[in-house]
Amino acid sequence: MKLFDVYPLYDVTPVSAKGIEVWDDKGQKFLDFYGGHAVISIGHSHPHYVKRIKNQLDKMGFYSNSIQNPLQQKLAEKLGQMSGCGDYALFMCNSGAEANENALKMASFHTGTSKVIAFNNSFHGRTSAAVAATDNPSIQAHINKQQKVTFLSLNDFETFEKTITSGGYCAVIIEAIQGVGGLDEPTTEFYQFIAKKCKENNVVLIADEVQSGYGRTGKFFAFQHHGVQPDIISIAKGMGNGFPVGGILIHESFKPSYGLLGTTFGGNHLACAASLAVLEVLENEGLLENAAKMGDYFKQKAAKIPKIRKIKGKGLMLGIEYDFEVAELRKQMIYNHHMFTGSAKNKKLLRFLPALNITKEQIDEFFEALQKALQ
């Protein structure tokens, strides 16, 4: 049997990793400034993380949600305390797509309606409703297009108000900083306007924090830069530092009932151990503060490079925009300078999503290589 060929692959085979350093099967060291789509939040093979998972595996790796699992409650309490979202309830699943799928489902249950407002260049996942709310027709099968989704421009107050007041909408789903789309953001005024109009029209506001959450922007959640309170918050990527885990935080105004949501693997013992380890490292090492500081330092360094047209994002969710497409630049960075970076729907944008414990010295190495590659 062969693999189903859906991924264009770089000719690199990583075999071990520590922090932001990755070694391939030939012994070559790479620096990881992308973290596998912002998944690696506390660095590869962090010793506390490894110890937590190993200890849990020695005891018990998995059982279903038909039994008591105190680790889930411990995680919910720690997450509520660190995020400032103690008035939400946690439902655990396995990925960002599944998180957004459940968020949209909850919104439809709650309102009794089905239409969704999403935004141009959004990316919310590849499952049925999540991919329908993703602004990329090429990854939507005909079965996905049965969903009723209206795509609007960010920061267009008039069109947003006209659309949401037309009726039939169950949810507005929004990224505070677009990931795959290219790091575009709503203004604070627009995000607050959305929140206000959702309340006025009994529409559920879903904050997609799958990529921007868990401290990546210097605050625990990116929506916290804007002073809003979403109804549902979706989380995943950095939550498990590589262990597949996701979830939604559901405001206490939503009432649960048995069977409303469900999952086989979500919230298993290993997922909880991984997620708790990430929160503990974020707290003990002050990584939210480091993300904010290193983001500022990155922007200062980037501002000195003439060929950079625009610097986008917050904290360590960053993008550098050029006036040329960056595919060749990424190849140079990986093959000539041994550094992983990321791309976006905006083909002129180079994405930078390192672990949150990155140092100034490592950022300096990145810019030294980048300047050489741009010559």
UniProtKB/TrEMBL annotation:
SUPFAM superfamilies associated with the record: PLP-dependent transferases
UniProt cofactor(s): pyridoxal 5'-phosphate
Entry keywords, A to Z: Aminotransferase, Pyridoxal phosphate, Transferase
Record InterPro entries: Aminotrans_3, Aminotrans_3_PPA_site, Class-III_PLP-dep_AT, PyrdxlP-dep_Trfase, PyrdxlP-dep_Trfase_major, PyrdxlP-dep_Trfase_small
Pfam families: Aminotran_3 (PF00202)
One annotated GO molecular function: pyridoxal phosphate binding
CDD domains found in the cross-reference section: OAT_like
Domain of life per record: Bacteria
PROSITE patterns associated with the record: AA_TRANSFER_CLASS_3 (PS00600)
PANTHER family: ACETYLORNITHINE AMINOTRANSFERASE, MITOCHONDRIAL (PTHR11986:SF79), AMINOTRANSFERASE CLASS III (PTHR11986)
Family statement drawn from the similarity comment of this UniProt entry: Belongs to the class-III pyridoxal-phosphate-dependent aminotransferase family.
Protein name: Aminotransferase class III-fold pyridoxal phosphate-dependent enzyme
Taxonomic placement: Bacteria, Pseudomonadati, Bacteroidota, Flavobacteriia, Flavobacteriales
